[in-house]
Design a protein that fits this description.
The protein is α+β, with helices and mostly antiparallel strands. About 60% of the residues lie in helices and about 10% in strands. The protein has a two-stranded parallel ribbon with strand order 1-2.
Length: about 80
């Protein structure tokens, strides 16, 4: 298990639900999400490089975006796919 997957799994365990965890991360990434929403109005496609746990990708998919997330850490990809 990688350093980052341990960090994210610990953070996730501190919330009562996955949605609560996602909401906390989305709040933290508000500026990023605002920029994506501003500049991707044409086709609503997003490539998230370094997606980590996939929280931003999940949020954007729920908002109607077509998202592809990539990360160099296989453990983080596995975590993102399990969410």
């Amino acid at each position: 298990m990688s350093k980052w997957s341990k960090i994210y799994e610990k953070q996730m365990s501190e919330f009562i639900s996955l949605n609560a965890f996602i909401d906390s991360k989305v709040t933290y990434k508000k500026k990023l999400i605002d920029a994506i929403e501003k500049y991707s109005t044409h086709n609503k496609r997003v490539l998230e490089v370094g997606c980590g746990s996939g929280v931003t990708s999940i949020f954007l998919e729920q908002a109607g975006y077509l998202v592809v997330g990539v990360d160099s850490d296989p453990d983080m990809i596995e975590l993102a796919m399990s969410i």
